[in-house]
Amino acid sequence: MARAARLVTGLVVLGGAVAAMGLLSTFKPSVSIAQPTRPAEPAADAGAAPLGATAQDRVNALAAVHSGTADAKLLRIPVTKLFPGNVSTAPKIKNPIQGNAEAVARGMRYFVAFNCVGCHAANGGGGMGPSLSNSAFIYGGDPANIYLTIYQGRPRGMPAWGAMLADNIIWDLVAYIGSISKQPSQQWGTTVSATMPKIEQVPAEYQSTPAPWNYTETFSDGQKPNRAK
Amino acid sequence: MRRHSVPMAMLGRLTLIAGCCGPAAARADVPMTYLRTFGGMKGLQITALTWGLLILSIVVVVITSALVLVGVLIRRSRAGAAEREPVSQTGSGVQWIYIGVGISTVVLAAAMVWNGYTIAAINSPPRDPRLTIEVRGHQWWWEVRYLSEDQSRIFETANEIHMPVGEPVRFKVSTADVIHSFWVPAIGDKIDLIPNQTNTTWLEAGRAGVYRGQCAEYCGGQHAHMGILLVAQEPADFEAWWRHQLTPVSSADLAVQEGQQQFVLHCGACHSIRGTRAGGRLGPDLSHLMSRRSLGAATLPNTIGHLSGWIADPQRVKPGNLMPTLDLSGPELASIRAFLEVQK
Amino acid sequence: MASLQGLAVAMVHRKLLLAVFFTCVLGVAAIAQTSPPAADLASLQRDDKQWVMSGKNYSATRFSGLDQINTDNVKQLRLAWSFSVGPSRGQEAAPLIINDTMYVVAPYAGPHPNQVFALDATTGELKWSYAPKPNLAAQGVACCDVVNRGLAYDQGKIFLNTLDLHSVALDAETGKELWVTKLGDINLGETITMAPLVVRGKVLIGNSGGEMGVRGWLTALDENTGKIVWRAYSTGPDAEVLIGPDFKPPYEWMQGRDMGVKTWPSEAWRQGGGTAWGFVSYDPELNLIYYGTSNPGPWNSNQRPGDNLWTATIFARDPDTGFAKWAYQTSPHDLWDHDGINESILVDLEIDGRSRRVLIHPGRTGYMWVIDRATGQVISADAYDHVTAYTGVDLNTGRIQPNEALHPALGRTVEDVCPAPPGAKDWQPAAWSPRTRLLYVPHQHLCANFKTSEVGYIAGTPYVGATVDMYAGPGGYRGEFMAWDPVKRTKVWAIREKFPVWSGALVTAGDVAFYGTMDRWFKAVDARSGTVLWQFRAGSGFIGQPVTYMGADGVQYVAILSGVGGWPGVVANAEVDARVRNSALGFVGATQDLPAYTVGGSTLLVFALPPDGAQRPASPPGARSPPQ
After folding, report:
1. Is B284 on the interface with C (CB under 8 A)?
2. Residue B238 lies inside a defined structural domain of this protein
3. Which end of chain B is more exposed for a tag (fewer CB within 10 A), N or C?
4. Does C497 participate in catalysis according to the annotation?
5. Interval C51-75: pLDDT, tens
6. C404 at interface of B, judged by CB pairs closer than 8 A
């Protein structure tokens, strides 16, 4: 009797297993339909551009209505360090994802994907655009300054990315730039001479890292990079 | 009586399930048919091996179960006999063991040989494939590139793969980030996508149809939503599809042109559409988006409603995926939708 | 009485007739003065007292018949006067000297970008200056410093191209603006840096932006109205590339219809590059203009399988219609940013016993092409520097043969690619002396590491997809000034330099060749032996083009702009980090020590022999240079 029970239990388990396999083969992934996070503006509102306008006009009309969600405090960030009356009320704005290693890694990916690397070079050395690998920033080196430089563009060639890139992407880039600009510096200014000992970064074709200043080699004076020797 | 109804119910369910594994069931929403595939020589070889080993296993189980049952029942019928049954080594008992081991060895060896033969047979295609498709895995979508001797026919698309029926197609697979695995069960076997390496496999579709595939190697949070739709078409239809994919869409409609501007601005940094200034490569190519059957790597059906929902909040559908929730107003979204609607 | 009256009438008639006659003569003379523009420039180019186009003449030989300065007295050369053009960015322009007035253009920086100056060529007095309306954002799409390679002149008009794609005609006497035409949009990533050329009343202008996903073109504007007469693209269908039934490519792999579409993946030719930022030459007898197109875009060749026509191609076109007569692609499916834009110097050479009308094209690839300029057939192509990227040029098929071992597969770091992306020689123009029959070639000696990566196209941003790191080639030197014999196909002599020799070359009938180095030396060498006879240490390194002319005082002057920069020099004149080798598209790896030698400058330097005793008598006026 016990043996029969065991036999039956075995068959039941076997049957259950087969049934489960059969069920799995009919499994459909659950489908969720997302809702927009912002309620759609009524169509009659400024969305309808006057007839005869060009496509660009209509794009501009929509952007004018759309207020955006950028932090209003950012508008008060000055681009200079000169304050009349010697009184500064510049708000201190931190990078919302300060210190997040994943943000730095994402920022590195965006740095390449959005062609920042084309003007500013791998590891931010510069070229068409100024270097981001040192602590000198033309338009301010605070995270909020760098954020605004990317968002607004700058007159001498920095494109205005604000309309194209979402805020969190720009903050990721700011985090990455913060990481690559941590140059080692023994002095306040920079001395250059043909004979003094210098360092250079391990070049990017050998190493891909969001913290390139951790990997240096002796200056090669225009010859093959020392690492290759 | 209740004690016996459980196994009866089980048996009933078993027959239902057996019905589901029949020929009509290999549709896009029923991808996993272990006992039947629809891909040319590769599928046939694998299916034959599967059936063979299954039948073999069933036979073995039946025989073993029968022997066990016989052993149990015989003992039962002699329940009244004396309890003391000395264990003795008579020739007949050991013979059973020798016979059993002998048969098992031969059968297992044969199965091993068959297995090896099948692996060798499916390793390379029966004839040199005319078409090569490059598949590059990303988290969590598939970049697909169609190669051709004539460079001007080379183009890229994403997630939905078309191939001609009745001829082997070479697949060269690689990955942009982590390990993935490319698998369309109804057509063929899995191939892993390994970083810094290009693997090569081949598939052949025996019948036209839409086959559901899946990434088969855990690759991060949205691994479950990294599906594939493999559309096998008759050669003439496939050629027509190819030519259509090469032809950019153009429209004189002002609303569509405005939508194109919005698309280039809000989407072009990551997405490309041939024939426009949108050339981003971080996300999937969206040329002829509306000609595809699904969105988000077989996550959502491709309807305007689903598309709007995806664009409005991709993080809700596939949390953690690389497309951010954009800051788009309703009219801007409607404009982009108007443009994408005509990308047939 | 009647006879007197008759005589008076006859006299009046005669006077009338004479008046009519002289009016007619004057009218004819006036008409003769306004004969087709080509005659004017074509004769001016032979006047050695002037320098009317960047290359001195339509053949771009940069040879002057002046011999007041010669190998004996050049060591006494000294600075006569100097002039600052303002911004201290790369100074690449060649000064033009017409009617005793020198015209020079400054880089696109400072308060007056691309400012044009007209100076008295003898005294250096400033006559007028012209500043275009600035658009500072253009700097953001200029790949290789904000340089301008110079002006053009014809019929009393000076022609200027600004970085932000405005073409301007100025009155040469007064500097008044005559017309302005906008030729393109910086938001597509394009700019203009080249020195235009006027041929048969048309100003020929090419765009820049091969690193920005730009579609390259050469445009002809009517010199009087500024309207576009024709535009020839470098990629796309034949109708837009201006390839018609007269087109005869010299090799069969360039034959076919719409090859500018067929040799690209679907739609990729729209961002294909092929910009025309180099110099244009012209042969009045064949009536053909010659120019080259840039690298294909992106640098990552894995994204653009196919030959990628018509990038890295030398075109021969009819200047009136723009239609191509032949084209030769120097680097099919280019892997290493080896543009085809280097100058084509038109000479007649004696090869294998017959006189051949050729063009000499010192390639970025490291090969010195000698090409029949009527047909495009390659006569010879020999390596003039260390080459590992190619195994040679197959003269039967005309195709350069890449070294398969150095294939830049995606993500693979390829080392020791020689020549590096700037090539064995970049835009810096060589000079040809019909006296020595030698080509004087300023160039570099670099190799590179090269690693490709996927790149997306975003209009107005770079479209490169490569991590590059350059360094000195074998021997450790990075530049060279050499004399090359194109008939014997061999290097005759060479002077090695520490840095790439990025300046142009000049050679004169005094058998003196001039060039400048990036570490501030302007040198005069004996054209036959290569001995350095004289050198001058300037305020900043040289990347400009030297010219020579005769002033109103009968003295021969040599002029060159001093101010380091350009692609190799941004590490010295801009905020670029010398410790990051991959900066400036990898060039910093090769010039990272330059800031220890020089920073940016902005000075026009004009040299002459000292006035007392030591100079030779001035050449008789109207002296002509010997036939080439």
Report:
1. no
2. no
3. N
4. no
5. 999 999 999 999 999 999 999 999 9
6. no
Q: Sort B21 into a burial class: Cβ within 10 Å, 0-12 / 13-18 / 19+.
A: middle
A-proximal residues of B, 245-274, CB under 8 Å: 254, 257-258, 260-262, 265-266, 268-270
Q: How far is B139 from chain C (nearest CA, A)?
A: 16
C337 as an active site residue: the answer is yes
Candidate from B33, B261, B332 with C-beta closest to A66: B332
* Prediction pTM value: 0.86
Mutation choice for C interface testing from B148, B198, B277 by most C CBs within 10 A? B277
- ipTM tops the 0.85 cut: yes
| Cβ-Cβ contacts under 8 Å, C451 against chain A | 204-205
B157 is in which domain, residue-wise?
A: 32-77+95-233
Please report the pLDDT score of residue A117 as a whole number: 97
Instruction: Decide which of C179 and B34 is more confident.
Output: C179
Based on the fold, state whether residues B322 and B207 are members of the same structural domain: no
Q: In the predicted model, is pLDDT for residue B92 greater than 80?
A: no
Q: Do residue A36 and residue B309 have CB atoms under 8 angstroms apart?
A: yes
For range B202-231, the mean pLDDT: 93
Quote the CA–CA distance of C106 and C121 in Å, as a whole number. Answer: 17
Q: Which of B21, B72, B316 shows the shortest C-beta gap to A34?
A: B316
Per CB-CB distance under 8 Å, the chain C contacts of B176 are 454
Q: Output phi, psi for A133, to 5 deg.
A: -95, 5
Predicted confidence (pLDDT) per residue in C420-460, tens digit: 999 999 999 999 999 999 999 999 999 999 999 999 999 99
Q: Same structural domain for residues B53 and B11?
A: no
Which of A118, A124, A194 is closest, CB to CB, to C593? A194
Candidates C141, C187, C580, C593: best to mutate against A (most CBs of A within 10 A) is C580
Is B191 a domain residue? yes
Per-residue pLDDT reduced to its tens digit, C511-544: 999 999 999 999 999 999 999 999 999 999 999 9
Do B12 and B113 lie in one domain? The reply is: no
Banded model confidence at residue B122, pLDDT cuts 50, 70, 90: confident
Whether B138 and B213 share a structural domain: yes
Domain of B227: which CATH number?
2.60.40.420
pLDDT confidence band for A47 (50 / 70 / 90)? very low
